[in-house]
Amino acid sequence: MIAVTDVHYAGARATAAAVVAGAWTDARALLERVVDSAVAAEYEPGALYRRELPPLLAVLAALPAPPDIVVVDGFAWLARERPGLGVHLHGALEGRAAVVGVAKSPFAGASAIPVRRGSSDRPLWVTAIGIDAREAAAQVAAMHGTNRLPTLLVRADHLARGLTT
Predict the structure, then answer these.
(1) What's the pLDDT at 165?
(2) SS3 (DSSP) at 6
(3) Which residues contact 47 (CB under 8 A, 6 or more apart)?
(4) What is the pTM of this model?
(5) Cys bridge to 78: 84, 102, 119, 135, which one at CB 3.0-4.6 A?
């Protein structure tokens, strides 16, 4: 089971969404969950995990079973041996789920794998923990959708933002 996640912020509230798929190439979710909570911390460059980890853990706890893989909007690793959101999530889950970070923008010094999808010249930046990063990048490249962002990543974003389409 793969949980594709995203978090959106509005004022003092955080909304986390999880879109669950059975396979990387699924076009539709098996189930979806949305959890609203208070913002845990202010945004701090290079320390996104302080803000994102609490709502992500809340939405993952709302799933009927723990996922095998969690996809986050961001980096697993910021740089060699510098943990990002995904590494912190992996630790909070006690290593029971691999975490794949899919970032839309590069992070200086990050050893991410660029993945180009659709006709976009702008890559997605993939890092991972608990799964080989090259395998994770290949799976992200194979995800459903013809655009830069895979279908289920867009769906998680829309749910977190409260969009119904």
Answers:
(1) 61
(2) strand
(3) none
(4) 0.94
(5) 84
